[in-house]
Design a protein that fits this description.
By secondary structure, the protein is α/β, with parallel strands linked by helices. The protein has two domains: 133 residues, Leucine Dehydrogenase, chain A, domain 1 (Rossmann fold, 3-Layer(aba) Sandwich), CATH 3.40.50; 142 residues, Rossmann fold (3-Layer(aba) Sandwich), CATH 3.40.50. The protein has eleven helices and twelve strands. The strands form two sheets. The chain has a six-stranded mixed beta sheet, with helices on both faces. It has a six-stranded parallel beta sheet with strand order 9-8-7-10-11-12, sandwiched between helices. Helix 7 links the parallel strand 8 and strand 9. It is globular. The two termini are 25 Å apart.
């Protein structure tokens, strides 16, 4: 991509994996649309983030993505937060507006778009089981609640974290049928009882990992979404398929959260198919 004095810069700040993949899809979109723009990656220490962001705005950057550990720093430091950032308790996208910096979180919408794309149906009205209540699991569970799911069960061996999320789901979204599963022996049964199973733990990021749920945790007609995207078929997806369920991996969520950020920054609908092909080539190479 040719860089001129008029080229509009965008950037991701934070963890190296975001540095690797975010530029791939955004630069592919800029090129496909013929936009004179470029997406770059920078390492910024958390202590300096809130001085760096205004400096980047003054330098003419068009928008910023943030990865761990900067998402919570921006949440505390920005004066203006979109409802999405307030709901999910983290900022992954910063929009520069005439009225100042605005923090957004596109992860929830990215998940909801990816789910509907993968399975041809929205998550609304379904019973959902979420395995893992860390940052990603919490974001997905809250997004499902906001989208109108019927019931939610969340599972985590960290009982404090799981129960805190259930309390948040009950008080914020008035989900009456909501449970925290903290007993390892009850997790498979809880998963099998749901219409939708969402996996939000790091298990499976290594090829030698054993699936966190065996085939007996799944059933025919069930929809299984694994947030891990390193492999076209993750170890959990294989287990789910053996159990009769229909699985999908998390690449679509990565894609659609990025596409939403692109929309916020540019006001333009991005070429999602182009971004998807760029991501698949970067992550899977010739195995996609």
């Amino acid at each position: 991509m040719k860089i001129s004095g008029h080229t509009k810069p965008y950037a991701v700040l934070g963890h190296p994996i975001g540095h690797t993949l975010s530029p791939v899809m955004h630069n592919a979109a800029f090129q496909a649309l013929g936009m004179d723009a470029i997406y770059l990656a920078f390492d910024v220490h958390p202590d300096r983030l809130m001085s760096v962001l205004p400096a980047m705005e003054n330098m003419g950057f068009g928008g910023i993505n943030l990865t761990v550990p900067l998402k919570e720093v921006a949440l505390r430091g920005l004066n203006k937060l979109d409802e999405s950032a307030q709901m999910l308790g983290a900022v992954n996208t910063v929009q520069f507006t005439p009225d100042g910096l605005v923090g957004h979180n596109t992860d929830g919408e990215g998940f909801l778009r990816a789910f509907e794309e993968a399975f041809g149906t929205p998550v609304a009205g379904k019973s959902v089981f979420v395995l893992g209540t860390g940052g990603a699991g919490r974001a997905v569970a809250l997004s499902c609640a906001g989208a109108g799911v019927k019931t939610i069960s969340v599972a985590d061996l960290d009982a404090v974290r799981a129960n805190k999320l259930v309390m948040e789901l009950e008080t914020r979204y008035f989900i009456q049928d909501c449970a925290a599963i903290t007993d390892a022996t009850a997790i498979s049964a809880a998963a099998r009882n749901a219409d939708v199973v969402i996996h939000a733990t790091p298990v499976g990021m290594k090829q030698e990992d054993v699936a966190p749920l065996g085939p007996d945790a799944f059933k025919k007609g069930q929809l299984v979404f694994d947030l891990i995207y390193m492999y076209p078929e993750t170890v959990l997806m294989k287990s789910a398929r053996h159990g009769g369920a229909e699985p999908a991996n998390g690449l679509g969520m990565l894609l659609h959260q990025g596409a939403r950020a692109f929309e916020l920054w540019t006001g333009v609908n991005p070429p999602v198919d182009v971004m998807r092909k760029a991501l698949e080539h970067a992550v899977y190479g010739g195995s996609a």
